[in-house]
Specification:
The protein is an alpha/beta fold. It folds into 2 domains: about 25-105 and about 210-280, Periplasmic binding protein-like II (D-Maltodextrin-Binding Protein, domain 2, 3-Layer(aba) Sandwich); about 110-205, D-Maltodextrin-Binding Protein, domain 2 (3-Layer(aba) Sandwich). It is about 40% helix and about 20% strand. The chain has 10 helices and 11 strands. It has helices at about 1-20, 40-55, 70-75, 90-95, 140-150, 165-175, 185-195, 220-230, 235-250, 265-275; strands spanning about 25-30, 60, 80-85, 100-105, 110-115, 130-135, 160, 180-185, 200-205, 210-215, 260. It has a 6-stranded mixed beta sheet with strand order 2-1-3-10-4-11, with helices on both faces.
Length: about 280
């Protein structure tokens, strides 16, 4: 009997002690679309997420799949609650209730079909039945927009997926494919980082950069804390250093900063799905 009483007292003391401690911060997985290689993507995001976690009190853990399609599969499987993506604007995925709250402050991006600067290919018509690389089947700007344009233009090509944008560029410069469906921001970054030159065969209209998004499971207080940390990062000396290192890593021409955004900024993404070829919806 005495032993049971002592055990109960010890449990009670432990509960009281824990009650006096601050609750552990909620841990959320954060998945950005794989735009560069896994090494570069991790090097870009891990310091940013460490900063945001420290400033917001909300722990964000980087979760990357092997390819951009794998990363989006984690998001769709509800293994993730924050994302940096443009893969959630189709009618079916819009039903999941993810909320846009921010974006990277950068000039609008464009879908491009590019080849090497010294390639004999000078027009899209020369790509008929040739191998053309794309990052992956989920890449909205670099695959869906560019491939839709090729289909609309009557230019059938053999689709090759590189896993991410760097992988597709690697296939182009190794001579494996004749051209690449790409994102203009990543074309410029790769050219700067790898000292390569491209010829642009086609440009789309403008689109905003990928969106910072939160799942409906994230409480409003946590979302606001994370958003505040992202948006204030470039005004904090510590944050500016991290963002400058991130810029240098990806070869971005301008400072990396994050700003508020809304669903309205992404209406042309949703418009694409209303008229897209069935296989790309």
């Amino acid at each position: 009997m005495l032993r049971h009483i002592c055990a109960a007292l010890l449990i009670g003391l432990a509960v009281c002690a824990n009650a006096g401690q601050a609750p552990s911060p909620r841990l959320y997985n954060f998945s950005p679309v794989n735009q560069q290689s896994l090494h570069v993507s991790a090097g870009f995001w891990n310091p940013i997420l460490a900063y945001v976690s420290a400033k917001s009190g909300v722990e964000l853990n980087l979760k990357l799949g092997r390819t951009s399609a794998d990363t989006t599969a984690h998001v769709l499987a509800q293994e993730v609650d924050f994302a940096f993506t443009n893969h959630l604007f189709s009618p079916e995925r819009s039903k999941l209730g993810w909320r846009v709250f921010g974006r990277r402050d950068a000039p609008p991006i464009r879908a491009q079909i590019v080849t090497t600067a010294d390639s004999p290919v000078k027009t899209l018509a020369e790509l008929v039945n040739e191998d053309v690389a794309f990052p992956g089947p989920e890449a909205f700007v670099a695959y869906k927009i560019t491939y839709a344009h090729l289909l609309d233009s009557g230019v059938p090509v053999k689709v090759v997926f590189g896993g991410n944008m760097d992988g597709a560029f690697g296939q182009l410069f190794s001579g494996t494919v004749k051209a690449v469906g790409a994102n203009s921001q990543l074309v410029d970054g790769y050219a700067q980082r790898e000292k390569k030159q491209f010829r642009v065969l086609w440009n789309s209209g403008p689109f905003y950069d990928l969106a910072l998004m939160a799942s409906p499971r994230v409480p409003e207080a946590d979302l606001q804390a994370v958003a505040k940390a992202f948006f204030g990062m470039h005004r904090d000396p510590e944050g500016r250093v991290i963002l400058e290192r991130a810029r240098e890593l990806i070869g971005a021409p301008a400072p990396v900063t994050f700003v508020p955004a809304t669903e309205t900024d992404y209406q042309n993404y949703r418009q694409f799905y209303r008229t897209a070829p069935p296989q790309l919806r």
